[in-house]
Specification:
The protein is mainly beta. 3% of the residues lie in helices and 51% in strands. The protein folds into 4 domains: 417 residues, Methylamine Dehydrogenase, Chain H; 105 residues, Immunoglobulins (Immunoglobulin-like, Sandwich); 125 residues, no CATH class; 94 residues, Macroglobulin (MG2) domain (Immunoglobulin-like, Sandwich). The chain starts with a helix and ends with a strand.
Length: 827
């Protein structure tokens, strides 16, 4: 029985080892999310509250929370305000107005394993694909459909088969294969749906697919006759990971069969070879081939693009750039590479992880990527973007998209590995001339999920708050101070969070100007309080939108109508407590009250936290600790506190003073211990000095013991002072009189064997030392080293461990010799 139980334990251990540790062994030909992050993502509730991060220029990044990288994003072709993005492992976000983002993760009913990809068909159906398996092994993908942009979901269906890096695309044309949905997955399987995602069938197997990075797209078949959606393209990725072969295939029968058009070696190393993986500053990456086709009816209709990253100059350890090539004959022949990043010294910076989208109305090819040009050491990055309007021949001036630069090697993100998982792809999509991208960066030390428009405009509104009384007027200025390749009109609208219950707020654009077409420029809003408007803090939302409603940005303005702010806090924010109308706070509050309101404020004192104490000093309005404030306008109040630190004095003997007290920072005080000499159970102990614990604590310079009372000050919190004592065996005080002078007496008996007594006189408090020397002048022993009070003293010297002979004893006071005498030891 014991043997079987032991075998069972071994089996459990081996299974656990395989599950928990086997996944940490990084396979350079597998680009899945690492096992530890996969487990985290299943137990992680994504943040569904969107935050707009606006830089000083007025450009926005939309922060969606913390997920686990590798987002894909798509736009509804029938409604440019509707976007959907998904991050690892199953973290989805959607917007239906181009501004506000929400989360509604579908339930697949399986263990999902990541690599999310998305697509819309021309009817506005959303297709969301994700890998699934048993937690360690990928079986394939599940695909789920939403008809309302991710607000609700249909039942999932079986998608592709394979073990890594799936992709999905949809025919958004009106051609014979309209609304077909296509999917690819390593090791080369191709699937198709002809019934709007109700089912998928595997229709082809590309045996050339051996590396992750297989991708599909849809393009027209040029005539005569011209067939919209008549070409389905697939690119496979195979061969050596540092010299990958891109094989381009075409289907002209809606994905039923494929013909290879060419195989190309365009890419090489991306950064450095670390453990068989491409690595940029310890971030794993790969030269994925991203393809797109021009479905517009512009001059470059049917052109096929491929974008990738590879080192320039080629070779291990150099820095990558982002490149574009195009084909005008369905992938047979390709142009030379065009560098997309336009920095002045491209070989000095890293440019990698591109994503592309060819917009079907304008034919504009948009590209985004990671870029280190702003960091001289190339270890921190931003997201950059550009576009081409001439079919990939040239690209517009690059634009920085991120509002903050982030460290590439995120040691706190939890990706792990060398190189570390920090995502292998992200995405960009577009409608008309304007796009939206999704990415993950690490500016907060985590896998932050972000989106941003491109091209884009900045938006600022000032002032941020407006005060109005009945009959009053105010003006708000809304500016577009800068743009990022944005050339369209921006139209502004406004809305109140609620209407007054009495009176009215009249708002209008000054001179009727509600739009901007040249940049920089601004519009102005006039606001009037008409009649008796009920007191309230109203929120005025000003929104700017481009054609079709994008890019979209909004700013919030406080309208204080017959109200005012009472901004209350302390100079010790987050520590000291104050009360407003008996409600307690520890952080500064910006409260709103009707004009004429009497408000009670109180500073709570003292506030003690460990060895630190905060004591109220005054209010900035010179009011008492507790007093009333009448709000007649915006008022800023601060309760000022001084800081005190507690001194702790510890001593085994004697009586300490000055300890256990809070002292003002930098203020002088005295602490100490007395008396210096204490008799405990017949043993004398002599104070010799202090040892301080903590920054700025007092420590004695020597062991004289003269600093039994110290004048000191503190600049930090709790300081512990420890008094040290030494035993002074045999030192006795004789009588109570005070001698007239320092004097060393003859020892007795002399000669002696082995103990002799030595007397000396101390007329004033001093540091006294009595030392024994041999006949050669070598110090034998120090028998007294103490700070002594005035008196007559006697000490006995036991010389039992020394040889017979002549010895000398010397009395020193404050390190100055006073007298020397001779004695004889005879054994």
């Amino acid at each position: 029985m014991k043997k079987n139980f032991f075998s069972f334990l071994v089996l459990i251990f081996l299974i656990s080892w395989g599950i928990c540790f086997g996944q940490f062994k990084d396979d350079p030909n597998i680009d899945r999310i690492p096992y530890n992050l996969l487990i985290q993502s299943r137990n992680f509730s994504p943040n569904s509250v969107m935050t707009v991060i606006t830089n000083t220029q007025g450009f926005d990044n939309f922060y969606l929370g913390v997920d686990f990288a590798e987002p894909h994003i798509s736009i509804n072709p029938n409604n440019p305000l509707r976007y959907f993005t998904a991050y690892n492992t199953n973290a989805t976000h959607y917007t239906i107005n181009g501004l506000d983002w929400f989360t509604n993760n579908p339930v697949f009913g399986y263990t999902m394993m990541g690599d999310p990809v998305t697509a819309y068909d021309s009817l506005g159906n959303l297709f969301y694909e994700n890998m699934y398996g048993n937690g360690t092994t990928v079986y394939g993908t599940k695909i789920i459909v939403s008809t309302n942009n991710g607000q609700s979901w249909l039942s999932p269906v079986n998608g592709n088969s394979g073990n890594d890096k799936n992709w999905i695309s949809a025919d958004q044309t009106g051609g014979p294969y309209a609304n077909h949905v296509y999917g690819t997955m390593t090791p080369g399987y191709f699937i198709r749906s002809t019934d709007h995602g109700a089912s998928f069938q595997q229709v082809w197997n590309f045996t050339t697919q051996t590396l992750p990075g297989m991708m599909s797209c849809v393009g027209p078949r040029l005539g005569p006759p011209d067939i919209p959606g008549g070409c389905v393209y697939v690119v496979t990725n195979s061969g050596n990971t540092f010299a990958p072969v891109y094989s381009f295939y075409i289907s002209t029968d809606g994905g039923s069969s494929f013909t290879i058009m060419s195989s190309q070696i365009f890419a090489g190393y991306v950064g450095s070879n670390v453990g068989g993986r491409h690595s940029v500053q310890n971030m794993r990456t790969r030269p994925y081939p991203f393809i797109a086709s021009d479905n517009s009816y512009g001059p470059y209709r049917g052109r096929l693009y491929v974008v990738y990253a590879t080192n320039d100059p080629p070779g291990d350890g150099n820095k990558p750039s982002v490149w574009c090539r195009y084909s005008t004959d369905q992938g047979i022949n390709w142009t030379s590479a065009v560098r997309i990043n336009d920095d002045a010294n491209p070989t000095a910076s890293n440019h990698w992880m591109p994503s592309i989208w060819c917009e079907k109305q304008s034919g504009r090819l948009l590209v985004k990527w990671f870029d280190t040009r702003l960091c001289p050491t190339s270890d921190s990055a931003d997201v950059y973007a550009s576009y081409s309007t001439d079919g990939g021949v040239s690209f517009a001036q690059n634009q920085r998209i991120t509002t903050a630069t982030f460290k590439i090697n995120c040691t706190t993100c939890g990706g792990g590995g060398t190189p570390a998982y920090e995502g292998d792809y992200d995405a960009i999509t577009a409608f008309g001339r304007n796009g939206l991208m999704a990415w993950s960066d690490f500016r907060t030390g985590a896998f932050g999920s972000y989106t941003a428009y491109f091209p884009d405009y900045a938006m600022l509104a000032s002032p941020a708050s407006v005060s109005l009384t009945n009959g009053g007027n105010a003006t708000v200025t809304v500016k577009v101070p800068a743009v990022k390749l944005y050339t369209d009109r921006v139209k502004f609208t406004y809305a109140l969070d609620s209407l007054p219950t009495s009176g009215s707020l009249n708002i209008s654009f000054l001179n009727g100007k509600d739009s901007i077409t040249t940049y920089p420029d601004s519009v102005r809003l006039q606001i009037s309080a008409v009649g008796s408007v009920n007191p309230r803090l109203y929120k005025l939302f000003v929104t700017g939108r481009g054609p079709g409603g994008i890019p979209a940005h909004s700013r919030e303005i406080d309208l204080l109508v017959n109200m005012a702010y009472l901004n209350v806090g302390t100079n010790r924010d987050g520590i000291c407590e104050f009360r407003v109308n008996n409600i307690s706070y520890t952080t500064r509050q910006n409260l709103v009250f009707p004009l004429g309101t009497v408000v009670n404020v109180k500073a709570v004192s003292p506030i003690t936290s460990g060895g630190t104490q905060y004591v109220y000093q005054n209010w900035s309005d010179a009011g008492d600790t507790t007093h009333n404030v009448t709000v007649n306008g915006n008022t800023y109040l601060t309760a000022n506190y001084k800081i005190q630190f507690k001194l702790i004095v510890n001593s085994t003997y004697g009586t300490t003073f000055g300890g256990g007290v809070f002292y003002d920072s930098a203020a002088s005080f005295i602490f100490g211990v007395g008396p210096r000499r204490v008799n405990v159970s017949g043993t004398w102990y002599q104070f010799i000095g202090w040892t301080g614990a903590g920054v700025g604590a007092y420590t004695s310079n020597d062991t004289s013991g003269l600093d039994s009372a110290v004048n000191w000050h503190m600049y930090t919190n709790s300081i512990v002072e420890i008094a040290h004592w030494s035993t002074t065996l045999g030192l006795n005080t004789i009588g109570s009189e005070i001698p007239a002078e320092f004097k060393l007496h003859n020892n007795y008996p002399n000669p002696f064997n082995p103990v002799t007594a030595i007397r000396f006189d101390v007329p004033k408090e001093s540091s006294v030392k009595l030392k024994i020397f041999d006949v050669l002048g070598r110090e034998v022993e120090t028998i007294v080293s103490s700070a002594l009070s005035p008196g007559y003293y006697e000490v006995k010297w036991d010389a039992s461990r020394y040889m017979s002979g002549v010895y000398f004893y010397q009395l020193s006071v404050d390190d100055k010799p006073i007298a020397v005498k001779k004695m004889m030891l005879i054994k």
